[in-house]
Amino acid sequence: MSDKNPRGKAHESSDQNESFEEIDFTSSPSVQKVFTKTRRKQTFKYVFIAFLTTAIVITAIIFGSQAILNNKIEKHQQNLLKETVYGANVHSSESYYIHGMFSVTEETKYRKQLGDRYIIWNKKLQRIPLFGSIKTVSQGSGMTGINRMDKEAKRTVRYNDFNNEREIEFYYPDVSYSPIPKELDIALGLDNDKLIEVAVSFKHPMTLDQLSKQLGYKNVNWLWVDTTSQSKKEEINKIEVASAKTKWGEDAFGFDVSGDLPYTTETGQVFISNMKELSNSNSTIKKALKTIRENTKNSNGELLISGAVVTGTPEELERFKELKFIRATVLGATIDRY
Q: Basic and acidic residues: which segments have biased composition (predicted)?
C-alpha cells in the first residue's frame, strides 16, 4: 500500500499557479512611482524638443526674413542713387529704418541748400515688405507743386506743396518764350538777411571749362544738363502755353557743385560715369544718357551745361546780374539767414 497521492499533488500545483496569476505587480506603489517618473521625464523631453524646435524655427524665420529685407533695402538704396543725377538742388539727406519681423518702414528726408543753410523740401515714408513691391505710405508732397497765376510775374508760378516755397524751372536755350522772366531783380531787392535760390538759364549751352571762366563757382550749387532731344524741343516750341514749355527743377538732370571749389571737365566725367552705371537698371536715365551723347556731338563729346542754380544773399547774387549770357532767371526758395 502506497502513501503517494498524485491527485493531491496535482490539486496543490493548480492552487499555486492560480496564486501566481493573481499577483499584479503594476499596482505596486514602487512600480507606479517608476511609471510616473518615466512619464514625467518623457513629457519634459517632448516639451523640451517642442520648445527647441519652435525656437530654432522662429530664429530661422527672423534671421531669414531680416536677411531678405536687408537685401531689399540694399537694392532700394542703389535705386535711390538715381536721385543724385536729377532734381535741381534737391538732396536725399538721410533715411531712418524701423525694422519689423516681416517689413521695414523707411523715412527719407529731402533737403535744399541755400547758402550755408539747408531746408527740408520733402519727406517720404515707404514700407518695404518681405514679399511684394515697395509702397509709399505717405509723403510731404514736396515733389508736387501747386500752380498759381502770378499777375506781377505774368506767368504761372509753382509752389512746393510741403513748405509753400517757390519751385524753380529752367528755360531751354533754343525755345522761344514770351515773356522771359528776369526775377534775379526781385532777389536783389530783398533784405540782405535773406538767403535766396535762383535758377539761371543760359542763352547757349556751354562746356564746363567755358562756364567755369564765365559763371565762376562762388554761390553756384547745381548745374543743369539738358537731356531733351532736338526733335522734342521742336515739338515744345509749338506749344502755346508757356508753363508747359519749361523744364521743372525736380525733373531736370544735373549735378551738385561746390561753391568753394572750381568745377572742371573731370567733374562732368564723374556725372557721365554715374549716369552710365545707373542706366543699366533705369530706362529713363538710359534714354537721358543717349540724348546727352547726341547733344554733345558738336562739342567733341564734352558735356554741355544749359543752366545753373545759384544761392546766397542779395549782395552775393549781385554779380550774376552783369552776366550777358544768362537768358532767364527764376526765383526759388527764400529763407531768413538768421
A: 1-14
